[in-house]
Amino acid sequence: MSSLIEASGITRDYHKGSTLIHVLKGLNISVDRGEFIAIMGPSGSGKSTLMHILGCLQSPTSGRYLLDGMDVFSAPDRVRSSIRANHIGFVFQTFNLIPQLNVYENVELPLLYSDIGNSTAEERVLHAVDQVGLKKRINHKPGELSGGEMQRVAIARAIAINPSLVLADEPTGNLDSATGLEIMKLFKRLHDDGATIVLITHDSEVASHAQRRIYIKDGLLTEEKGI
Amino acid sequence: MVKTIRYAIRSLLVHKMRAALSVLGIVCGVMAVLSMLAIGEGAKQEALSQIEQLGTRNIYIKAISLTDEQKIKARERLSRGLHLNDVRNIKHGSVDIDEIAYLKEIRASLIGESRDVTPQIVASSSNYAHVQKLVISQGRFIADQDSRRRNLVCVLGDSVAKSLGSDGKPGRSIRIEDMVFKIVGVLKRYDQKSGKSSVISIRNYNEMVFLPWGTASGTEQSVITGTNSSSDELTEIIVTASNIKKIQSAVELLKRILETTHGGVMDYQIIVPQELLRQSMKTRRTFNIVLGTIAGISLLVGGIGIMNIMLATVSERTREIGIRRAVGATQMNIITQFLVECVLLTLSGGIIGIVAGVGSVWLISTMAEWRTAITLWSLLLPFTMSACAGIFFGLYPAYVAARMDPISALRHE
Fold first, then answer.
1. A57 closest CB neighbour out of B4, B331, B406
2. All structural domains of chain A
């Protein structure tokens, strides 16, 4: 299977006052197309930073990141935005929905910035909402939904563009265990449909749904475990 | 773009009151611009219609009443005031003149039952109606022979005729002082184009009674006894230049003739409607600059208010900006989104301002009796200005939003 993600020597430093903090210290990672991996590690280990780099939201201090063979950080910001709009779906722990928009409009959001035409966009939104089982709540605003429903909307938003890569940062972190399980089943189904999923979690129960588990500690990969 | 506008409206409606208050400055600015343009345009139209009514080729020479002291000085210099001799001198001395008409106000009154109208009795040359473009509705105007034969005839203004009822028709008679005059004509209603803001006073011909010059005034022994009309003094001379381009040279010549015959005594005033129009326009320009500055300041203050609100909005919606960036919005998309919101805000202010402006223009024209005119230009300019203010004052907040780091924005609480 070909690699979708090839990252090597990724470092990321932050300045906190006069102190330089090394969050990622030369990390190498490779994810195959259609793979479902979980990145695990304690709080502050650099999991989220890695996800932001893999999602082209944040550039590494050094290192090389190839997404589908393209060196994304040598491209301008406009191109990275286009990659996010057309190829990457994000699911966040805090859902990150826009409160004044309803379910349909929240799911439609990435399509506004993608190369997908208007008529196809509507089809995609309805299909994505249907996939997460929220068709009946399509006109509801986030404030009228439960946590689990909001996360379903976020997943629908992520999959509406048919992304090459779905990045999920603690998607069950704000949900009770039963709802969390439902969400994980949804990810499993997405994976079965061929999506490449990178899941960030500190919960080994959640990570158990992935094909492969990667552990980060102090900004470095410490261990890889397959199923 | 349609969706961007739809979402922008949705975002603005989240804080309706804030949005409404933030556009107040723009509303005032647009209102001021519209009012300024409407007043300016109204004044321009009024001045133009006045000059048209006064005659584009006409030059008015009006008598000025002097104080007793000035009268003594005038007599010493052999000036008899505005006089029939001036008409003769002008006729002989000028080549650029087509016609000369003259008129004298007579202190006499119409005898009869009390009426709504107090008419002004005047004696005029027979060509006065022609020079002033007065239209006869019934009968005829004063003729040369009326003046020569001192005929006891008169022509009534429309209001005077109407106030007399059936007695105000040609063929009937009226009494002025102790003389009876036969009505030979009635003027058509004269649409007086002078408002409160007029620069030139135009006679109300509707309330006038015209007598032949020779009958009432032009002889040493006037037929109207007991009045001051037994001299050749005039109230007004109207000179029509042969060509609109000859007005200036005609005026120069008139000044020279009158200065010589009046011995340098300024007991007359030369009024050139075109010159008055120019002066009026100059005054209006100053007025427009003052109003324009006020309008500009209002728009500036309104724009700064909008910018302030937009900056607060950007700060409030930091997380939303982060979400949009995460799902693929470019910096340009973010700039467009906030600019659209800002322009929508100022445009709605502009529309409200235009409606309020139309109302204020109506109020001004009703209360102050100023002539106003709302043209397409006076609607389009403030509307465009409000849109431009939206772009100008929205650019900085939009830029701030676009420059946000997506990660920091996503983490924003």
1. B406
2. 34-59+76-226 (3.40.50.300)
